[in-house]
Amino acid sequence: YWQGEVPCTRPMTKDEIEGDYEATTGDVIVERFGNLDPMQHPAVLVASHGPFTWGKDAHDAVHSAAILEFVAKLASETIRINPQIEQMQSVLHNKHFQRKHGPKSYYGQK
Q1: I need a surface site. Which of 12, 42, 75, 81 has the fewest CB within 10 A?
Q2: pTM of the entire structure?
Q3: Residue segments in the chain with a per-residue pLDDT below the cut of 70
Q4: Cβ atoms of 28 and 14 closer than 8 Å
Q5: pLDDT for the residue 1
Q6: Residues forming a β-bridge with 46
């Protein structure tokens, strides 16, 4: 569901928090996505706040939220079971992502 890790924003500064907080929250999300395709990363974790998700429509955005929560639970349980677990090789992660979401996707039913 994500081309790489789930993006996380930087913490907001004191001035940003005390200023136009809601607009600045959007600004740090946009800032975080500088070189990322938002459709290949349908969620972001805003530092000290929480998740924001999206999709091609409202149903898809809710689906992204459910997937994000499920993946977070799996990651938490994996680390609890094996604290020394290593991150998946990027070549394998990219293979899984591209075969389902890439321009020549072939995984699953059409």
Answers
A1: 81
A2: 0.76
A3: 108-110
A4: no
A5: 74
A6: 50
